[in-house]
Amino acid sequence: YKGRYDFRRGLSSAMNVLLVICMAVLCVTGLMNSRHVLGFLQPDGGMGVRQLHSAAAYWGMVFVGLHAGIHWQRVMASLRSVAGACPNASRARFLRLLALLLAVYGVWASMDRDMGAKLFRGFAFDFWDPDRPSLLFFTHNLAIIGLYACCSHYGLKLHRALAASGGVALRPPLIR
User: Buried (b) or exposed (e) across 122-133, using 16+ Cβ within 10 A?
Assistant: First the structure.
């Protein structure tokens, strides 16, 4: 890739690499755990492979959220062009309030799902409690992804503001 790698581009490239690695781990461990797809080979995934698969799934949610936040301006520009909407200050305030609420729900969902233990300490193999509604599973996961998207989007905005004001901003080594 040609051009200068500024902080955002370097972060985006690193996130793409992490996503590819995470998704590859998910695919391989998923096939090793499957009793249907590769049942004729009788792969013995074992508990270690199950734990690796689960950890990769949780890290995948984090990486997808961070990736979405890095590209959030592009996503919003595409949605505006499809909807034919012009930038609007009141709509922007409303969407920022929704992002804040999503992030707060994401923090709560992260605690409810015990994300810290699942990302860093390892665990046996967890299942969603069948007594809890399935919709809650999906809203929790989307909220967690949304939390990381908000963190990366607003973190990059803060980084840009610091760099513009002459404050402390991270600069990667020059890569050409």
Answer: eeeeeeeeeeee
Residue 44, CA distances (Å) to 29, 41, 60 in order: 11, 9, 24
Closest C-alpha to 15, from 52, 51, 65: 65
- DSSP for 80-100, please give it: HHHHTPPP-HHHHHHHHHHHH
Three-point CA angle 104, 15, 24, nearest 5°: 105
Name, in order, each residue with C-beta under 8 angstroms of 43's C-beta and a sequence gap of 6 or more. Answer: 31, 32, 34
Alpha carbon 97 to its chain centroid, in Å, reads: 20
Per-residue pLDDT of the chain in tens (176 residues, 90 and over written 9):
577 778 888 889 999 999 999 999 999 888 887 766 665 555 566 777 888 888 899 999 999 999 999 998 888 888 777 777 777 788 888 888 999 999 999 999 999 888 888 888 766 566 777 888 889 989 999 999 999 999 999 999 888 888 888 766 565 555 44
Secondary structure of residue 41 in the 3-state scheme: coil
What distance in Å separates the CA atoms of residue 63 and residue 47, rounded to the nearest whole number?
Answer: 24
